[in-house]
Each structure stands twice: as structure tokens, then as C-alpha cells.
Design goal:
Layout lengths: L1 H49 L3 H14 L3 H13 L3 H14 L4 H13 L3 H14 L4 H13 L3 H14 L4 H13 L3 H13 L5 H8 L2
Helix pairs in contact: 1-2, 1-3, 2-3, 3-4, 4-5, 5-6, 5-7, 6-7, 7-8, 8-9, 9-10, 10-11
Length: 216
């Protein structure tokens, strides 16, 4: 009886250990398979986005997010929605991406671009401000904030931000053009024309047209 009891006890516990190990192995393989599947759907969505298949891309990004949440999938889906003029949907995805990484200045800058494109420059400026709080040397955020301020007719603020860009990128043609147009709005014609001349020297395609329009 004792031997039989011990045999049954050992057999039961060995079986239980094997069962637990089997379940753990299945769960591990299942999680790996899900992760690989999320990556696959993410890549498929990115390919469809590049091929301008926006609605199909949204489906793939959504499936990827259902399997595994990722910033890349949110941003991909936001880009596809933006191309379909679904600015509200794109904004939701940017909000979700930022919740996953609140210290990323690029996310705030890009959400600001989306807000500016949606005709909300004041809200866009708040995002550019946050991007610059996180990275005070982020030139794209200075440039984009300058554009938003220009659109709000805050020409003094726009001038300051364009100059910030040019402090480190003296030949940035977009910033030079923005600064020239801003100086013109501030009635500083001589400075504006000097920047248009500089653009012409750099080979900017439309510089001569601007010189004829503003400096004759």
C-alpha cells in the first residue's frame, strides 16, 4: 500500500510539473507569435501607407495595435487618417502615442504640425512650446512655431523663432524666406530685401520674383 501510494504521489506530481511546463511553453510561444504578428501587420501597414492605400493601411495598423500597443503603429495610423482628412482621428492617435512617451519632443512637434494644418495654430504653438521645453535645440520646432506665429500675425514672435533657426543653420532657405517675409510685414524693407538677396545668392528658385515684388 505504501509503495503504491508513493508511486501514485510521484506520478501525480511529475504529471503536474509536466503539465505546468507545457502550459508555460505554450504561453511563451503564443506571446512570441503575437509579437511577430504585430510586427508583420505594422510592416504591412507601412507598405500600404507608402503605396497610398490609406484605408487598408489603417486596418493593418489597427490589427497591430490590438495585438501589441506601439508608438509606431499609432503614428502610422495617424498618418493614414491625416491623408484621408480625418484630422480628429489622427489627433486621437497622436494623443495615444504621446501617452506612451511623454518625453519625446518629436511627437509634440508633429502633433503641433497636425493642429496647424487643421487650422488651429494657437493649439499648435502649445505643442511646439512643449517640444522646446523638452529639447531647447530642436530647430524644427522653432521653425514650425515661427510659421504658426506668422499665421496668427504675431510677426515679432515669428521673427524671433526664424532667427533661432538661423543661429545654427545660417543658410536654411526656408527660414531665410520666412524671416524676409516677416521683416516685410514689420515694415523693415531693407532687411527683408537683404534676405531676399541672400536667397538669390544661395540659388533659391523664386528669389528673383520676391525681389521684383518687394524690393523694386
Amino acid at each position: 500500500m505504501i509503495i503504491s501510494y508513493l508511486y501514485n504521489f510521484i506520478f501525480f506530481n511529475v504529471f503536474r510539473i509536466i503539465f505546468i511546463l507545457g502550459v508555460n511553453l505554450w504561453l511563451t510561444h503564443s506571446l512570441v507569435a503575437q509579437t511577430q504578428s504585430a510586427d508583420n501587420y505594422l510592416r504591412q501597414g507601412q507598405e500600404k501607407l507608402q503605396n497610398e492605400e490609406y484605408k487598408r493601411a489603417i486596418i493593418d495598423f489597427t490589427i497591430s495595435l490590438e495585438i501589441e500597443v506601439s508608438i509606431e503603429a499609432y503614428l502610422g495610423r495617424a498618418s493614414a487618417k491625416r491623408m484621408l482628412d480625418d484630422f480628429a482621428g489622427a489627433m486621437e492617435d497622436y494623443n495615444s502615442a504621446i501617452e506612451l512617451d511623454k518625453k519625446n519632443p518629436i511627437l509634440y512637434n508633429n502633433r503641433g504640425n497636425l493642429k496647424d494644418e487643421a487650422g488651429k495654430p494657437a493649439e499648435a504653438i502649445l505643442d511646439y512650446d512643449q517640444a522646446l521645453r523638452l529639447d531647447s535645440l530642436y530647430q524644427n520646432a522653432y521653425y514650425n512655431r515661427a510659421i504658426a506665429k506668422y499665421n496668427m500675425q504675431d510677426f515679432a514672435g515669428a521673427k524671433n523663432d526664424f532667427e533661432k533657426v538661423l543661429q545654427t543653420q545660417a543658410d536654411d532657405q526656408d527660414a531665410l524666406l520666412g524671416l524676409a517675409l516677416t521683416e516685410n510685414k514689420l515694415n523693415n524693407k531693407s532687411k527683408a530685401c537683404a534676405y531676399f538677396v541672400r536667397l538669390s545668392q544661395l540659388g533659391f528658385r523664386d528669389a528673383e520674383d520676391y525681389l521684383q515684388k518687394y524690393c523694386q
